[in-house]
Amino acid sequence: MEEFENNTNKDEEIELEFQKKTKKMKKNFILTTILIALIVAVFSSEFTLYYYNKANNLEKTEASENADKNIDIIAENLKSFRTVIDQYYIGEIDEQKILDETIKGYVNGLDDEYSEYMTKEEWEEFQADALGNYVGIGIYMTIDENGNVVILSPIEGTPAADVGLKEGDVIVNVNDESVLGFSSDEVSSKIKGEEGTKVKITVLRNNEYLDFEVERKAIKVYHVESEMLDNKIGYISLLTFDEGCSEEFKNAYEKLASEGAEKLIIDLRSNTGGLVDEALNIADMILPKGAKMLITTDSEGNKTTDVSENDPIIINKDIVLLVNEYSASASELLVGALKDNGKAIVVGKNTYGKGVIQSVFMLNDGSALKLTVNEYFTPNETKINKVGIKPDYEVDLGEDPNVDTQLNKAIEVLNTK
Fold first, then answer.
1. What architecture is domain 224-415?
2. How high is the mean pLDDT in each 10-residue block of the chain (417 residues)?
3. Which end of the chain is more exposed for a tag (fewer CB within 10 A), N or C?
4. Is 120 in the active site?
5. Catalytic (active site) residue 129
6. What is 133-220's CATH superfamily?
7. Which of 327, 329, 331, 349 does the annotation list as catalytic?
8. Is position 340 annotated as part of the catalytic site?
9. DSSP category for residue 282
10. Catalytic site residue from 100, 129, 340, 349
């Protein structure tokens, strides 16, 4: 009986081994078949492309180091491509869109995240944002370290705040269309629309996808918020450096001063910048006349220094600036000007590091070229771009949303002065 059982076991082992080999052969056959099919498909595609290339003499001339010659090369390449498009493309052609997208592609080739070509409509929308008047849902956005568009904060009293959108929400879809990998400007243009219409926003929050239907409304952005804190500390939050914010800042300060404010906290957290002149106007209110505020260099290395032109209106005040990793551009300009002149202590996190300035060149059809033309440095010639400004007291915000550890540290610093 034992011998029979042993033989049976051997037969089973042989059968199992045979099945394994058969499965392996089938698997290899399937993989080989798929591989052959892929090779054939790729070869067929390459052959087709090669055929059309030969048939239509479609060639691409390599770029030249000479800028003027390169313009001619681009024109030659576009003519070559257009010949094939006209002969074989089955869709409709929007000539204006082709022109606009070609110019955008040319500017994008600079590989500068801040330079861009805007159509007339895009420029008008950009101006409306800068003036703080637009139709939308009322959120500030930025790009995080993963390249995703993240809500910095909903504006109080706007549709975004009313439906429950929150700081830190990653915008995944707009009207069920993925916007992952899009720029904040591209996402903004998809969110905006006619007043009274609705837009569906899908966000990722705490590993959960949430849908919000938000009505678009006319949004009036107020750049400054202020209040009196304990121990005669005035608090001013600057949300952005859009047009008119320096005048709003001045009014807010004068109101706090009339209420007895002897010390001041200026909150620049998540303020991603705006107009340089607005930041310089605020620095001019605090720095002594003739003090260095900003040093800029142009494409040829020429250096220009901006100095304060007026007697300060904010004098004999201890000031703390609150910053975080989203404080950028004009915010960093103001921080650098006050810190280097010994007029403020900085609390929070290292700032974003956008130390370049863009100028806008208008075209005759109303479109615009926004181009990076200057790099700026603090009065002590400290580099900002890609570096940021390190705070005097580095403080994490903390996990408890009800406890503002950075603001508490700012108050502590002022109470010890």
1. Alpha-Beta Complex (3.90)
2. 37 46 46 39 41 56 81 91 92 95 95 94 81 81 87 90 94 96 87 93 96 92 90 96 93 97 97 94 98 97 97 95 96 98 98 95 96 97 97 93 95 94
3. N
4. no
5. no
6. PDZ domain (2.30.42.10)
7. 329
8. yes
9. H
10. 340
